[in-house]
Amino acid sequence: MTTALITGSTAGIGAAFARRLAADGHDLVLVARDTKRLHEQATELHDRHGIEAEVLTADLATDDGIETVTARLGDRKNPVDLLINNAGFGNKGRYLDVSMADELKMLKVHCEAVLRLTSAAATSMRARGRGGVVNVASVAAFVPRGTYGASKAWVVQFTQGAAKDLAGTGVRLMALCPGFVRTEFHERAGMGTDNIPGWLWLDADKLVAAALEDLARGRSLSIPDPRYKALMGVVKVMPRALLGGISSKTGRKYGPR
Questions:
Q1: pLDDT confidence tier of residue 184, bands split at 50, 70 and 90
Q2: Catalytic residue among 95, 148, 228, 254
Q3: Angle 235-239-242 (CA atoms, 0-180°, nearest 5)?
Q4: Are 210 and 222 in contact (CB under 8 A)?
Q5: Chain-wide mean pLDDT for the chain?
Q6: Beta strand 171-176 with 180-181: parallel, antiparallel or unpaired?
Q7: SS3 string of 128-149?
Q8: Residue 140: which residues within 8 A CB-CB, separation 6 or more?
Q9: The pTM is what?
Q10: 26, 53, 141, 188: which sits with the fewest CB atoms below 10 Å from its CB?
């Protein structure tokens, strides 16, 4: 039986990955900051699907938290076959309205943690000749959206570059770029969502199903919905100056994922 490790597993896209992978018979390592929620989630998934669910409390905004997870990923006696780097958050406010401490915390979670966890997982996976990593980014990676969009753009570029370097090793890497998903993400960030059209919202469980299909196909980038594929096609041909102006007007009051 294979094992998947999911960061940010207790809510949103992470919880959807946990539900789907448990239903498919994978054992899980559930990672988040809230120990109580982790144990509740682990018990529920074990009782419902008969899988083993290990709990790992870690704050990926800290070196200790990152090191705790990298150590688990490097455990060769209990290997992890699939890593879902899902932990993330958004800051409310435009550039310079958000404290430097919060900006650096975002880069720690979105970039440094993703780099270190992916590297730890891929090292062990390459030695075994198999494994997969899904790094959750956002369609915000493709538009100028301050630190959040920049950090997610880094995730996409890093993941696709690493995927090329690991081609032929049996290790698959994929950047997942969802749009607006009905989760706790925006509420936690204090972001308003009233102005977002209903047709832009995605279902987390359907998103995860599409993402896993893309991973199985060997894709290094997944935009798991026809609506967002079309929108990103428009973004590619839109003049950068115009795109930047549109993004600036919306600021960071709300953003995808």
A1: low
A2: 148
A3: 95
A4: yes
A5: 87
A6: unpaired
A7: HCCEEEEEECCHHHHCCCHHHH
A8: 148, 149, 152, 255, 256, 257
A9: 0.87
A10: 188
User: Is the pLDDT assigned to residue 12 strictly greater than 50?
Assistant: yes
Strand order in the sheet with 3-7: 53-57, 27-32, 3-7, 82-85, 131-136, 171-176, 221-222
* Residue 177 burial by Cβ neighbours in a 10 Å radius (0-12, 13-18, 19+): buried
Is 254 annotated as catalytic?
Answer: no
Q: Per-residue pLDDT tens for 189-216?
A: 444 555 665 557 689 999 999 999 999 9
| 14, 87 Cβ separation under 8 angstroms | yes
Owner of token pair 């469980």: 205
Beta bridge partners of 132: 82, 172
Place of tokens 């509740």: 40
Look up residue 62 and give its two tokens: 């800290």
- Cβ neighbours of 42 (radius 10 Å): 22
